[in-house]
Structures are given as structure tokens and as C-alpha cells.
Amino acid sequence: MPVRIVIPIFDGVTALDAVGPYEVLRMLPEAEVVFAAEAAGPCADGDGSLSLVATAALTDVARADVLLVPGGPGARRRVTDEPLLAWIRRIHATTRWTTSVCTGSLLLGAAGLLDGLEATTHWSAVGQLESYGATYTARRVVEQPGGVITAAGVSSGIDMALRLAELVAGRTVAEACQLAIEYDPQPPFDSGAYAKASPEVKEYLAARR
């Protein structure tokens, strides 16, 4: 059966939050991927140096099999955007899976979809996530009842998308997607989780933020 994947974007989106999962999910059999925004057209990333293009307006999207909400500084700014939150709630009612990457979980939380659930997000947004009634867990991908799946920071969206591919189409297809993008991480450093990073690295990031 065709699977309709809707990815809402906005100015200030973190591009990899959306594009990483897109590269996996677009390969699912009969996948239809829709990038939607307040209005069709380009949305700039958090630095304003790169744009993703929405092909549909949010008001033109009535349903999805998969809703995938990316994060970024724009997501943090939109946690009080009631029209967007109402749209997320409305689409969630039609989905098989409602998912987020990084601080996209803050939008799910603000929409009331994570209250009482375990969830994850970027390490810098844990307190805000829990303010919406979620229980933070440091797992990279967190699955909960009702088809709610949250992924931690930026790069974890690829892990989440591979798991979602397995749920949608089975392990063979998911592994084929992994092979197609040659996703075989061998990072040169072991500093990809907050608990692993050195004090110097944390101080450097804190100063830049």
C-alpha cells in the first residue's frame, strides 16, 4: 500500500532533521513524501544559508500515514504557534506513526501529544520537553504506544527513519535503505552524546550557544 509521509518545515529548521529521514523514507515502496509549510515555497535553515522547499501549504494537507516533525531553532520559536500546533494535532489523528527529530519533540509536546509518555530530544532541550508532561529518556530512539516515536539530536533522525522503515515495510527493505545510503557510522571521535563529551567540548558549545 502507498505510504504518505508528511514533513512540516519552517524558517529555522535544522536541515538534517528533515533530510536525513527523507533520504531513507523516500525509498519505501510507493512512498509519497510531502514537505509542507505555512505557505508553499522555500524555508531557510537556522543559519539562513540553506533552504528547503515546501511543495504544499499546511492547510492543503489533511492526512498522513507518517508525520515527521523536525526541529531546529525555528521549532523552539513555534511552541506557542497555535495554528501549527492545531495542525499537528489534526494530522496526528490520521496517522499510523507520529514522529519527531531533535527539538521537533517540543512541538509534539506543546501540542499535547507527549503528556505521560517517555520521549527524547536534543540534550539541550530536556527541561522544556519535560515541562510538557513527557518523561525524558536518553535513548536514541523512543517508541511509545499510539505510534509515537521520538528521536534524539539531529543525526538520530536517520536511526529513527530506519526503524520506521522496518515498521512500514519490513526488515529487508529497511536494511536495503541502510545499504543504499551506506549508513555505517564510524565516527573519528566518541563525543556524540552529552555524557561522553569532555568538559572542554561542553564549555565550547555553551559559549557558542
Automatic annotation (TrEMBL):
Coiled coil: none annotated. Pfam families: DJ-1_PfpI (PF01965). Residues 4-166 form the DJ-1/PfpI domain. InterPro entries: Class_I_gatase-like (IPR029062), DJ-1/PfpI (IPR002818), INH-QAR (IPR052158). Transmembrane segments: none annotated. It comes from the Bacteria. One of its GO terms (biological process) is regulation of DNA-templated transcription. Keywords: Glutamine amidotransferase. Gene3D superfamilies: 3.40.50.880. This is Glutamine amidotransferase. It comes from Actinoallomurus iriomotensis.
